[in-house]
Please model this.
Amino acid sequence: QVQLVESGGGLVQAGGSLRLSCVASRIITSSMGWYRQAPGKERELVASITSNGRTKYGDSVKERFTISRDNAKTTVYLQMNSLKPEDTAVYYCNAGFDGLTAWRQALYRGQGTQVTVSS
Model:
């Protein structure tokens, strides 16, 4: 079993930045990523990254968010710039899936961290 612990969420004004981190309890050789869920809305892909660094972003965050992971393969980051009120959601880290698009079938998920963007 793998535990994922997110941190870095909070309240920020529109146009601001936040950096989320997700630390895994052991080395992750599969893909990792972030998805988000706002109240009353479905889960939405934010970004995924493979073990060799290939990335995929959701359309609504392209050019604003950047996903990365450390060489030790235990931590994934999400740098969020130019934040908008519509980015407000609970952000979840996940791991244990193949490629860039199978994030819904991830084996492991964190508890989530709240991101609130005020206008």
